[in-house]
Amino acid sequence: MRNPQLNKQGELQHLLTLDGLPRGIITQILDTAAPFTEVAEREVKKLPLLRGKSVFNLFFENSTRTRTTFEIAAKRLSADVINLNVATSSTKKGETLLDTVDNLCAMHADMFVVRHESSGAPHLIAQHLQNTGRDHIHVVNAGDGRHAHPTQGLLDMYTIRHYKKEFHNLTVAIVGDVLHSRVARSQIAALTTLGVPEVRVIGPRTLLPTDVEKMGVRYCATMEEGLKGVDVVMMLRLQNERMNGALLPSPQEFFKVWGLTADKLALAKPDAIVMHPGPMNRGVEIDSAVADGSQAVILPQVTFGIAVRMAVMSMLGSH
Amino acid sequence: MHLPEAEQLIATLAETMRPRVTPDTCLVGIHTGGVWLAERLHALLGLSQPLGSIDVSFYRDDYSAKGLHPQPRGSKIPFDVEAAHIVIVDDVLYTGRTTRAALNELFDYGRPARVDLAVLIDRGGRELPIAASFCALTLPTPLPAGQNLQLERDDSGALTMRLIHA
Questions:
Q1: Residues of chain A with CATH 3.40.50.1370
Q2: Which tens digits make up the pLDDT trace of A277-312?
Q3: pTM for the full model?
Q4: Which ranges in A37-89 belong to alpha helices (H)?
Q5: Angle at alpha carbon of residue B135, lines to B132 and B136, rounded to 5°
Q6: Residue among B59, B68, B73 minimizing CB distance to A318
Q7: Is A24 on the interface with B (CB under 8 A)?
Q8: Which one is the CATH code of A23-149+303-317: 3.40.720.10, 3.40.50.1370, 3.30.428.10, 3.40.50.720?
Q9: Is B87 left (phi over 0), alpha (psi -120 to 50) or beta?
């Protein structure tokens, strides 16, 4: 079966997940993003690549940073951007997901940027478009349930490459709530595809998927073990809103054991970088001294995110 | 067809430009051949402004037909475009579409006082009302569309013109 993200020519048709996305495509996205970072310094911060195209931001779940950076990216490519806060509109009145999509197609949509609380929703839309012969309409997954958040994973890879140049000699630690994190899944898929030899996950067993080792990572039971000698520390947000049952004692206790403090960061390499996909819970998974410290690259991640999303959308829009 | 030596053409082009440039004139090379050529002209003419480069792949009018260049190199304009005298440099002038794209991109950085176009060879076949301000060689008869004329650079940095029959 053909990869549902690629067209017959092997080009990117939809961006749904980094799992199974060929290394060549990931590298192409990162290479394409590089020249886009420079557009922000121009007087006219616009390129004509998506001129005349309509990009629909379809957010069934709230988000500020991701929706805004997608909107900025599409606007810098000269697209018309339509933001739909679906959480408060048609679905509340009982319209199905695919009916919403069909209606927006009737408004001549060229691209959907989709965030949904259910894993697989963007895939369902992509399949529906394919089944109905609308190959000129593209879907970008902006985060679905616990499944994937591919543009976040890509911007994280861009950030790592920016500061560390290569992937093949790195040790990377992902810390925190992997179980509920679509970001972590996308990061792990990208890191392993790009050839990072050692990816560690650190966190309480209750917040890690069972069989986490099958994802090609090494499980570390303590921060001391996991952070030792790493080049990159990728923090995850504690997903309070996704948590059912007593997985955690309290945020304060979580911070004591798993929070990233200057003392714990000292175990990593001296030039290690600290990343966080945001929004941060200061004093829960990360100490303010670290979040605002010299090793944090959390704000550059946001800036790079615009260029990476421009790269993805321009590659999709080119066919 | 016999092609003249690229080095000879570069010298001719520099001499054509010399009376019409000042030390403050800014050169912008179009990737890739135009950038190599601009480097040479910059040295020969003794210009003081840093060299700029433009990758027009984000501005091509055939983007939707051909797709994005697999490895765009981006543009670097390290001087203030506002009120500057700018010379766009390219190895070969053909349809004029690349020049149009470069002009569009340049104006996103500011409003230059004057923009000129310098090319080594005008091969004919224009599809837009664009002409070179400086040109070392105009082919007497336009090259057929299937042929590709471009500047090439070897490991030692030597430049040669190459004609490729598609």
A1: 23-149+303-317, 150-297
A2: 999 999 999 999 999 999 999 999 999 999 999 999
A3: 0.87
A4: 65-76
A5: 170
A6: B68
A7: no
A8: 3.40.50.1370
A9: beta
